[in-house]
Every structure is written in structure tokens, then in C-alpha cells.
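[recover] target loaded
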């Protein structure tokens, strides 16, 4: 099963992926641009404070890069945005975990502080949630395209049963009007 083939292009879930990626990408772009505006040194491990978080030139560059990546995903939309959101969200959570262990050490080349770690966790979970919305769940509704893709036989049986019910409902007025059942002789 290929994840990028599962969601129809015009499905309503695509707007969740698109707007989620766009908003999160915009936040990252703003943070990165504010860092560039302060002309920060690239590998300053102390980091200047912008929007309550410490940053340096390298972190600003990465923020702009990931912000642009998410905005591009928002422009493309659909399954591309969903998959991109899940991957970027996982990378942010992983970054938060790694930086949690290297705070106040020389290996902290991005100048992370505790607020950056918390932001990384929150932003990562938010981005990943936007990416997984309607795609990952134990109880997807049966009209969800992901559920239908994962259960093709049951989806076909349910579609056939729905068509039969509609056909019976359409024939019901005919039975009442002449008193006999259609097809019976």
C-alpha cells in the first residue's frame, strides 16, 4: 500500500493537510527570518533570544528551510502534504529529544534552550497531527478513503449492499401501487 495513492485529490481532508502545513511553515519562516534580521552568528551556542527562544544563524537557516518545505507541501496539498507533515513532525520530535540531552554542551550547535525543546515537541506533534488527521486511527469511518483502501473486500460488500438497499427503496412504491412484487409471476 502506497501512502501517496490513498487520498483522492479533491477529498475534504486535503484542506486540513494543506492549511496545517501552511500555518506551521509560516510560523517557522517568521522565526527564521527574525533570526536573519538580527544577523546572528551561525554556530553561537549561547544563542540570541527571539520570540522567547534562543537561536543562532544555523537554526534560523534550518527554520527557513523547513518552513519553505512545509509551505511547498501546502501548495501541493493532498497526500504529499500529509506525508510531508508526518515526516517533518517526526523530525521535530526527534530533534527535541536529541537536544534535550545535549543542552548546555558543546554539541548544541543550534543553540537550543529548554524553550526550544518544548517548542520542538509541540510543533512536531502539531505538524504530525495535521499529517495523520483522517489517515491514522483505529476507528476510521467506513466512508474514509483510507479505510476503503485498507479493507477493499468489505468496502465492496458495503457498496453492493448500499446499492441493493437503494434499488429496493426505489421499487417499494411500485409494490404498494399494484399489490404485487416486481419480478414475481
Amino acid at each position: 500500500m502506497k501512502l501517496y495513492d490513498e487520498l483522492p485529490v479533491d477529498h475534504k481532508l486535503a484542506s486540513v493537510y494543506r492549511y496545517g502545513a501552511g500555518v506551521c511553515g509560516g510560523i517557522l519562516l517568521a522565526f527564521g527570518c527574525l533570526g536573519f534580521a538580527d544577523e546572528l552568528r551561525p554556530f553561537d551556542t549561547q544563542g540570541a533570544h527571539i520570540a522567547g527562544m534562543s537561536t543562532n544563524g544555523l537554526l534560523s537557516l534550518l527554520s527557513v528551510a523547513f518552513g519553505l518545505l512545509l509551505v511547498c507541501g501546502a501548495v501541493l496539498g493532498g497526500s504529499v502534504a500529509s506525508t510531508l507533515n508526518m515526516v517533518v513532525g517526526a523530525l521535530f520530535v526527534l530533534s527535541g529529544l536529541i537536544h534535550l540531552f545535549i543542552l548546555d554542551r558543546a554539541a548544541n550547535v543550534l543553540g537550543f534552550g529548554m524553550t526550544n525543546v518544548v517548542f520542538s515537541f509541540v510543533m512536531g506533534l502539531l505538524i504530525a497531527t495535521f499529517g495523520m488527521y483522517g489517515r491514522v486511527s483505529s476507528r476510521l469511518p467506513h466512508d474514509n478513503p483510507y479505510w476503503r483502501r485498507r479493507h477493499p473486500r468489505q468496502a465492496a460488500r458495503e457498496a453492493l449492499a448500499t446499492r441493493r438497499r437503494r434499488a429496493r427503496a426505489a421499487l417499494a412504491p411500485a409494490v404498494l401501487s399494484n399489490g404485487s412484487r416486481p419480478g414475481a409471476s
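[recover] notes: DSSP finds six helices and two strands in the chain.
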